[in-house]
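Inputs:
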Amino acid sequence: MTEETYPYQTIEPKWQAFWEKERLFETDTSRTEGKYYCLVMFPYPSSMLHVGHGRNYIIGDVVARYKRMKGFNVLSPIGWDAFGLPAENAAIKGGLHPKKSTLANIATMKRQLRQWGVCYDWRREVTSCLPDYYKWTQWIFLKLFEKGLAYKKRAAANWCSSCQTVLANEQVVNGACERCETPVIQKFLEQWFFKITDYADRLLLDLEKLTDWPERVRIMQRNWIGKSTGVEIDFPIKEEEPLRCFTTRVDTIYGATYMVMAPEHPRLESLIARSPNRQEIESFVERVLRQNKEERSALETKKEGIFTGRTVTNPMTGKEIPLWVANYVLLEYGTGAVMAVPAHDQRDFEFAKQYRLPIEVVIDNPREPLEASRLEAAYIEEGILVHSGPFNGLPSREGMEKIADDMEKRKIGRRASAYRLRDWLISRQRYWGAPIPILYCDRCGILPVPEKELPVLLPEEVSFKPTGESPLKDVPEFVNAVCPRCRGRARREIDTMDTFVDSSWYFLRYLSPKESKRPFDPEVVNRWLPVDQYIGGVEHAILHLLYSRFIVKVLHDLKYLSFDEPFERLFTQGMIIKDGMKMSKSKGNVVSPDELIERFGVDTVRLYTLFIGPPEKDAEWNDRAVEGSFRFLNRVWRLLKALSASGAPKESALERVVPDEKGKVLRRKVHTTLKKVTEDMEGSFRFNTAIASTMELVNEMARTLGEDPRTLSKNEKLLLREASEILVYLLAPFVPHLAEELWSLLGHKESIFRAPWPEYDPSALETEEFTLVVQVNGKVRAKLQVSAGVSEDELKKKILGESAVQKWLNGKRVKQWIIVPQKLVNLVVQG
Ligand code: ANZ
Ligand code: ZN
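Outputs:
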């Protein structure tokens, strides 16, 4: 055999052109039978793709190609999440206009995807920064506004002083901006919100339906929604409305010795109006508001507070207890006020110690009675109620229920839930996003832009300066508008929408991307969704998936959609690591695919990306290991070339093989591999093990082929022909260009992607067994059941593993093996 490498340079562009000409990936969505919607998360057009990005699209392409060979009507679309900060920041630094740079990046990435043999139905391409798309993003805003699910309020918002914009809670990671890692501060601003909290319970409950999602993603969503069940209790205040708190430990209420409210609590101002140290309280509040919320609620943070001068009544003990303000209580959680039980809550304990507030044990440790004066930390476990009036002696759980019942009966409290989830802050003080379709009229107030006036076009002539306000404010043609109600002068909203709004519905648009009268054709969408398989990075486990689920539920409730969960199955691929770090431009460890493609061809890069490890796990990229994949493909190429030179039958031989004894071994290998690869593709995408077994199959084929193909019997040629066909099938989703080339070498005229994936032959898997007699030094010592196809190595291993044999070997070395095939083995050992 020659060592020349296979001509990927000519093969790859040839088949790419062929697929395009054949429109192989254009999907007829009017046909829903056997529909399979395979979706990859649409990319942000950031510039060149590196091999780390490649994993997502390659996996999606493998799944789409495989499913299509399985006979499904596969829809595999792509688009661009094209609004966003990086393009605008580049423009501020004196770069290109965001629209120019974004469209240029899209062109580059498109070229790359084509070059990788990743195929989409390009007629369905959507680009979120173009008016024909964002018109409908604005339409979705209007629908939420009509339903009271979009509202504006002045709120403390997370502010990144470097990005000069607010961030959603989800975009704050460890108290810093997710993008640039600048510490986030709180800033009071008028902001637009989507009322996702109205859907908290359904978003939580329906996670149960998503059984084909990775468990860890479901857990992350569950924690993010963060539901706690407990009781809301009203604490009376003299001459005022009672103050309401939320607790998960109502069993501890007899130990509530003081109450704390959040510094931002709307009732604080009036409660302290006549307080002598009002100024002191106000300056305390101001200081706390400069701390960020993560810091404030962290367990380690120093608890600080101030007495309001007021008291409230503990409704169970009837005692007056002091009301404090403290940094560790947040307004957004529960009711923004807490009954403090220092004996049983660690934060309250630390606070009480510091400010010498009373500590009373009301839950006793059944193993070791507690004493308030000797507590070194709060006793937070369950126990037995003490000093709790009629509830004494009850275990915590039971106490909780009994006290809640009692409160509900007397109407001083009620069972309730609290959620960690906050409303979704969607306004951004930036340019490169979809304008929020709202008008402000001095006479008529806040008004939605009438639907027929959509889209509110984003003007192109603006000056890019980081002012902390949207640059749209300096564009009079944009700002000045006519009030749709009174025809008077109105101003336009200058903030734009969070890009997560754009990406919360793009998968609907793919079904009818050219619709100009509505965002999508509900009829087609309802037949094609939910998405059968969604593939993307786990970094979107919370934000994007939660928002998409929310928007779909809203559109469902508005009767546009018949389903209420967008993604049936979810697969999250692991990251590609280089030198121990996530591969990314900012880390400077990016491997560009171009050079590798030049040296080895794109099929090699695809194969390596899939072979690198289980696709859901992170994997370390190794440039040198890529060569191993290249060698394998060359081996396959030479093998099939040699075979066709040997005069193997030209046409399909799948059904005409009658193997002899020797042929059975090969045939068994072929069909076990087919079975295994099929299972690997179906289950959890075990591409790496599928490829590994395909490599074994190639070894077995090479063994059968032997040194001189001319000596092959007719039967062997037939068998090898069958093996070759199946091998090409198995390789096709992974290395589609080479597979097409080999497929045509085998004499086929049509694309392999129009050929149905083969079924394995169960009869080929059957292994016949025989009884083997094992002798040691000529004496029969064991009888074993052995399968007919066993190799000599395996046979020896099996014999040596038998305890009945080991006993007679006594640790001695076997000098000689005498083997009578399928009958007897005699081990000759010394003395
Ligand atoms: C009394 C109590 C006694 C509490 C006790 C705990 C233990 P999770 O489980 O996270 O839902 N809390 C309520 N609202 C708060 C707010 N806005 N800011 C800070 N803390 C708040 O926590 C619920 C508990 O967190 C509630 O139950 C309340 O303290 C506190 F032995 O009430 B607990
Ligand atoms: Zn008006």
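Remarks. Residues 661-682 form the longest helix (22 residues). Residues 441, 443-444, 483, 485-486, 488 surround zinc ion (ligand 2) (CB under 6 Å).
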